[in-house]
Amino acid sequence: MEMSSRKMPIGIQDFEKLRTAGYVYVDKTSYLYEIAKEYRPYFLCRPRRFGKSLLLSAMKAYFLGKKELFDGLAIAELEKDWIEYPVIYIDFNIGSNDCLQSVKIALGAILDDYESEWGISEKSINRPFTRLMHLFRSEEATKYNDLPIRFAKLIKNASKKWNRKVVVLVDEYDKALVNTMDNPKIHDELLHFFKSFYGVLKGMDYALRFVFLTGVTKFAKISIFSDLNQLIDISLYDQYAEICGISEAELLTQFQPELHSLAKTTGKTYDETVAEVKKRYDGYRFSEQSASIYNPFSILNTFLQNKYAYYWFKTGTTTFLANTLRKDNFDVRTFDNDIKIAVVAIDEYRANETSLVPLLYQSGYLSIKSYNPEYDEFTLGFPNEEVKYGFLKELLPAFAPQVIMDDSFSASRFIKALCKGDVEQFMRILTAFFASIPYDAIKREHRDEQYYQHLFYLLFTLMGQFVETEVKSAQGRADAVVKTVDSIFVFEFKLEENATAEDALKQIEDNNYLIPYMSDHRRLVKIGIEFSKESKGIQRWLTSD
User: Fold this and answer.
1) Gap between the Cα atoms of 331 and 341, Å rounded
2) Alpha carbon distance 314, 310 (integer Å)
3) 344 and 473, same structural domain?
């Protein structure tokens, strides 16, 4: 397989290394300059692996006055002074961050280093790495209970020593909080700690030149958001929508060699290749008016390996989200561009609230599709095929636990039968699928018609078919409508006591569910399915053309 001849900066989060080692860099320094010239604290929320760490590393190099690293970039023409400031850089990408003790030790080690390097604390000592590791297993870790005080003293003393205000950069401020969302006790402990730690910044304005925090989500209980009123959250600003990620203009102007190479390898034309890349990796919008953004991690990996794959989705886990959506009986069919949320509600996550929609948006699983100014609300949906199919595949086990789908055999047989219009065959496969779900896997009260509609949506969508569920007609809703090249299948489910497959077919007829498709050239097939009240599997089904 042909690899990219240019160096793709995958996993390179250090700006200095990227610039000195000759990696490809999409120039974002004009945004950096616009933000950095202000003497204010900022916050930016973006999904994981979207370039936040590299942006923050570039800020660090800029505030350290490393002018040579920016030669040839936009900021080289904009900045004239290149003043060096003391920079406190806190990176939560390092370490496990899975409990309060580990977070305190990691932060303590960072403060130790700065205190020692700058010689501004008598308590500072230069502990070897082995000693640091010992602290993870020692009660001595409690010495880091004074971290907020040490943080404040570090900022104050650094400002005095340098006779300049201090720059504070925090990368992935919320990593520990995101990692512990499925453990309420530890999560609450971390919320309490971070409230006091980040709260230090509120009273240190006199000593701060610039503050910038990045994260995946905005936790409402962190005091920096509730107390630090001057904090500017630019996550939804039109002018900074492209500060991370790759715009279409950047893709088409800066990655021409890679696009042509990918086209050659896949046997497609250049235009077909651009369209395929867009379908798979584009679609992220971070403001009301902005154009869509490509996922940089997937784009760079595609160009490095010269083949398509779901690179970004494979680097994370959605188990917590999937299980919570199932537990809350969330209507997963609304993921296809039909989730409404008020603008004021999209930019923060409250752990005690039931809605996961803000978190799904901030984590990159949903994106802005449109904005309605009349109601000041966004419509959200999957940004692209990578996220859609990756997320739904992760979601399926939450609805059908312990069911193993053989993608190379069962799914292909089902698709072939469906496309051939072989109702007998695909209904046999579907019946076997429902029969394989353990009886006690899903709570009895959750196995209603909506549960089966969700499963239909997941199954058909994952198999590449276009499925619509609860499709409205003049007199009601069909439970599911599945469209193939040659046929349109209209499904109706019956789960009520004494309800039969005959009743399901009659409902399709009586409510005229076929009328919207009468002018379509495809074969119209009605399928009535009767589910067992006991086993909750398919008991009988009938079909009629």
Assistant:
1) 15
2) 6
3) no
Cα separation, 204 vs 165, in Å, equals: 10
Using alpha carbons, select from 462, 328, 499 the residue that is nearest to residue 479.
499
| Secondary element (H or E) of residue 492 | strand 487-494
Domain CATH number, residue 523: 3.40.1350
Number of independent structural domains in the chain:
4
Q: Which helix (H) or strand (E) holds 465?
A: none
* pLDDT tens-digit series, residues 357-387: 888 998 899 999 999 999 999 999 999 999 9
CA distance 41 to 227: 13
- In this predicted model, what pLDDT tens digit does every residue of 169-224 receive, in sequence order? 999 998 998 888 888 899 889 988 998 898 898 889 899 999 999 998 887 666 66
Using DSSP bridges, classify how beta strands 377-381 and 339-342 pair: parallel, antiparallel or unpaired: antiparallel
Sequential DSSP letters for 358-407 = HHHHHTTSSEEEEEETTTTEEEEE--SHHHHHHHHHHHHHHHSTT----T
Structural domain of residue 50, as residue ranges?
A: 27-240
- Residue 59 has, within 13 A of its CA and on its CB side, a CA count of 30
d(CA 266, CA 351): 45
Q: Which residue has the tokens 């969508």?
A: 461
* Angle separating helix axes 29-36 and 52-63, nearest 10 degrees: 60
